[in-house]
């Protein structure tokens, strides 16, 4: 106890003693210290990775039910889930109304979430160059592979008005699975 009190009273001497003790230990055990630092870094990285991964999984588990609840609410209120707006051809409101008329309000809501957050952000000039050499175009990010196999023209793929019909047909055939954003949000079953 007396030693502890002396250490508190004389912090400079204590610091010098600690520095000296550490210096002696380090010089006598350099290799061990290096291995300890490496092991400490690996453990720190592993803990940080696991904490980040757990946080992400927890976040996803929190968000998925909210998306499902919101989709169910839209389904219940399907008579007027989308605001009534005088829409001009080629606008976001026009596209949402076309999707809602053909597939219902739930699908139109999913479309708004997918295109607004994961695909084009409703930017008619949006494009994305893929690693396989193809390009995704316009609102729906329709892949140029459909142009190459003759299903639609390049002008149609780049036009929001023309590509809306193609995107609806594609959705009718394959659900949301052709869209990366739908897969990321869990809409592709």
Structural summary, described in words:
The chain has 189 residues and is mainly α. The protein folds into two domains: 2-56; 86-185, Lysozyme (Orthogonal Bundle). The chain contains nine helices and three strands. Strands 1-2-3 form a three-stranded antiparallel beta sheet. Strand 2 and strand 3 (142-143) form a beta hairpin. Helix 4 (92-103) runs parallel beside helix 8. The chain starts with a helix and ends with a helix.
Brief synopsis:
With 189 residues, this protein is mainly alpha-helical.
CATH topology of the largest domain: Lysozyme
Report the top-level CATH class of the largest domain.
Mainly Alpha
First-last Cα distance: 69 Å
The rounded Rg comes to 30 Å
Measured by DSSP, the beta-strand proportion falls in under 5%
Which secondary structure elements does this structure contain, and how are they paired or packed?
Blueprint lengths: L1 H8 L1 H18 L1 H47 L15 H12 L1 H13 L9 E3 L5 E3 L4 E2 L1 H4 L5 H5 L1 H15 L5 H6 L4
Antiparallel strand pairs: 1-2, 2-3
Helix pairs in contact: 3-5, 4-5, 4-8
Offer a few descriptive terms:
single chain, 189 residues, mainly alpha, Lysozyme, 2 domains, three-stranded antiparallel sheet, 9 helices, elongated
